[in-house]
Amino acid sequence: MQINVTNRQRLEFAALGFLAEMRKQWARLHPADPCPIKNLSDYPENERSALMAGVQKAIQYAGADTDQAFATWLAKREEEVARTT
Asked: Which of 52, 50, 39 is nearest to 8 (CA)?
């Protein structure tokens, strides 16, 4: 999938927000430990691209065009819960 500059900037913005939230959650859970989650600019280019691809996929999964796939996943999840309880 080809993305234009504006979409790439939005994706970068989303990745920055994701990492900021991850650092915040890490600090809550591990207040005495150094945080292993870096700023986006501190990752090598290939890792930055991989992280942004993951964020992009998560955004796609959250979109309305995946409603049918989400409904299928939810039904399977509910079946699993019913089987294990």
From this structure: 52
Instruction: Spell out a b/e string for 36-47, using b for 16 or more CB atoms within 10 Å of the CB, else e.
Output: ebeeeeebeeee
Instruction: List the structure tokens of 10.
Output: 């939005």
pLDDT digits (tens, 9 = 90+) for 23-57: 999 999 999 999 999 999 999 999 999 999 999 99
Integer Cα distance of 22 and 16 in angstroms: 10
The 10 Å Cβ neighbour count of residue 52 is 20
Rounded to two decimals, the pTM is: 0.79
